[in-house]
DNA sequence: TCTGGGGTCCTAGGACCC
DNA sequence: TCTGGGGTCCTAGGACCC
């Protein structure tokens, strides 16, 4: 049995934890660069605001309706996420953190001690007490069904935020009430295609022929069908698998037209990517860079090239990664465009730096690379200021917009809330 | 003027091998 | 007239997730 626990309206809820005056009011959080809406309180949803709406288009409207708007404060969300996960880990032996706001819990052993429904309510109470955040809990024999139970827990008030689906009869009653596009793994494209062939709810999907689904769609959807029938195809992941790619990309606060500014941005993103790589304890060989103009500008021709370079020896030294990234940038840079975004992607990972030196290689690993990188990472996490490579520049006129950022309530001493 | 960021998995097709 | 069978690896693109 799996339990899926996730936080309701996570980002907006994080904001209202520290702003009780906003509870019960419409609140939204907008994406990086104050681009578009990514999280909404129930009251904001009721006003007809939707995820993905560009902020600049609805700004005036939201002001009129007195909607509170926040720029994304990822330091805050990551910290609260960590507190939620710690609370879950205290209560259950096997917690698989699935995303910033949700986790699967293997509850097989727990069911021997107490009813799973009771356990679900205990989880809710404890997380609320520790963090001020409300979670929904779905419990079922497969991950897909746990997700579905979680959906039901949120959709229907009288469930009290917990739905347990070990009973087959309850399951058969719930399935036809769930639209097929709410099933985990069924997105916009597939739901449209399913609806065309008359499959509109979760029960109809569960009762479809696996053979036909595989033929007309893919093995992925076939697994979903089996999971809906209670046949577990997705296992509990005991350890987080190592990443295949690491990406750092950002839109700019203002368009970039000068090479020097792009050089700075690519340096900055390469540094951040390298830092993430070290956090994963990995080394990489391939570094790719892309730059692009706005895909929305009708009167400009789109330009969005990409180039990569390879390191002879796997590395996680920022200097190596910046060097290859800038080299790639030089291959694709063209004057005359108004660039909106750039990204640096790392791939081809190894768990050790120098597995074996190439016989004819003249490259040698940098001396003391490890110590230097550790020192930089420690300094940047100590809360005493930051250090960075000069290539990033100091002015950073391209930095992203965050005009409505909330304080770092739990991540910065000077921002600690004061209780009077 | 202004439209996010970061991931995964699968499939098809091409190049190449024997 | 007629041109095999069985693989691997890589890449790009499409679907999905949060």
Automatic annotation (TrEMBL):
Its EC number is 2.7.7.7. GO terms for molecular function: DNA-directed DNA polymerase activity. Keywords: DNA damage, DNA repair, Nucleotidyltransferase, SOS mutagenesis, SOS response, Transferase. Residues 2-187 form the UmuC domain. The gene is umuC. NCBIfam families: PRK03609.1. InterPro entries: DNA/RNA_pol_sf, DNA_pol_Y-fam_lit_finger_sf, DNA_pol_Y-fam_little_finger, DNA_polymerase-Y, DUF4113, Rev_trsase/Diguanyl_cyclase, UmuC. The keyword Heme does not apply. It is an enzyme of class 2 (transferase). This is Translesion error-prone DNA polymerase V subunit UmuC. PANTHER family: DNA REPAIR POLYMERASE UMUC / TRANSFERASE FAMILY MEMBER, PROTEIN UMUC. It comes from the Bacteria. Belongs to the DNA polymerase type-Y family.
